[in-house]
Design goal:
With 458 residues, this protein is α/β, with parallel strands linked by helices. It contains 17 helices and 19 strands. It starts with 9 loop residues before the first strand and ends with a helix. The structure holds flavin-adenine dinucleotide (FAD). Flavin-adenine dinucleotide binds next to α1, β3, α10 and α11.
Amino acid sequence: MSVHKENLPIIIIGAGLSGTLLATRMAQRGYDVILIEKRPDMRKVDISAGRSINLALSDRGLKALRLIGLEQEILDLTIPMYGRRIHDKQGNTTLQSYSGRANHFIRSVSRQDLNIKLLNAAEQSGKVKILFESPCTHVDLQKGIVHYRDRGGNTKKIAGQAIFGADGAGSALRNSMMRHSGSLRFSFSQKFLKHGYKELTFPAWKGGQHCMDKNALHIWPKGGYMLIALPNLDGSFTVTLFLPFEGENSFEQLQSPQQVIAFFKKEFPDALEHMPNLSKEFFEHPTGALATIKCFPWQTHGKTLLLGDAAHAVVPFYGQGMNASFEDVTILDELMGTSFDEDWLKLFKRYESIRKRDADAIGDMAEENYYEMRDKVQDTTFVIKRKLDLALEQTFEDYHSKYALVTFQEDIPYHLAMQKGHCQDDYLMQFSSNLNEEFADKINLKILKLQLDKKCPS
Ligand SMILES: Cc1cc2nc3c(=O)[nH]c(=O)nc-3n(C[C@H](O)[C@H](O)[C@H](O)COP(=O)(O)OP(=O)(O)OC[C@H]3O[C@@H](n4cnc5c(N)ncnc54)[C@H](O)[C@@H]3O)c2cc1C
């Protein structure tokens, strides 16, 4: 346990996914923590509207949950998804496995179930106090003081020995840094996609049965837009429509129930069969925007540090935003274990210097994967390339596709996964462009692997 130089608590803004995980870990390290959360307690009030309902959890996220002793409890709440099940217009489906290895798959988990477990874990530590309905308004970066409004609307302030901004994509701490952008040389970029998203549902069949294969992430790719579906434990699927805001086939074109039904009938007829509440949900649920946020520095004066979406929001197409946010806590904790010495400034500087390139890498790869999921999953060269990826994974223990490096190799930093993954992808795409599907099965994998090792060394 640490010896504390100061008696002030640690303050964490945001009791979402990364804030609660960090709070629990800090409590395990012996710190008193105050968590400031703008929303009500989700264990008492339903606040799910408008947030993504389920998420793909993979090995980087699981590693962080293991750190706080919560991995098994969370695994019990998940549904394995072994690959992408692609739906074509005729209603035929094919499964594209995520890996050539049976133990490599991702899992669907309810955001709310996960957040509740994390809130409970934080409170059960006995060292975390959570202030709900208390939005942070701004932070005094020099003095390390958080300003917030309490439940009664009164303005309050509280000092901390270290302040963490885990308050998501619209971070109040980041806004305070922006206000001093000149003196901090604070860089910020927010890049919106032209596409937004809307969450819909395939309800469970009677008896809680799933209406489709529950062990896959379902995709209806359409070139310029797509539908995806992830399973829930209650037998339903959460379905997300990704569609441009404007133009032909866009949200702006879908203004009436008739237009929505006609659009689904034309584009996603087999999905429509499972959507009795489509037009009601379509007009009741919000349309969300998707953006990549990058900024730097993440710390100021050794007093404050951004993490999770507050530091690096990514678009959801690699299923890594939460996993990366959880990994932030793992990395920070590893540094505390080696070179901390109660020096927050040294710790924060070291953290941002090694973590920034990984956050940038996953941000870039998530954008690339958007185009892959939308446009390429049915492309012949891409399908052959994925086939070779899987065959290589099945044959060679040390081969991992880019997807596997990102998703299942939790000890490889994102930026290295990206470097190696891009190199392999470029080579295999080039190689596959000269093949037809039949011939792909006859490739000498040993020679191909030797060529890849030469081109893309570790
Ligand atoms: C459609 C969609 C699908 C996604 N799918 C996946 C997926 O499959 N896999 C994956 O890994 N990631 C996914 N993500 C990304 C994931 O949701 C985020 O990366 C993750 O929630 C980030 O966690 P966080 O703790 O940083 O922020 P959040 O989970 O957003 O938590 C922030 C918390 O801070 C609170 N807060 C905000 N402002 C204030 C304030 N001023 N004062 C006090 N509290 C405040 C909020 O109420 C919230 O509780 C998806 C995102 C979207 C939009």
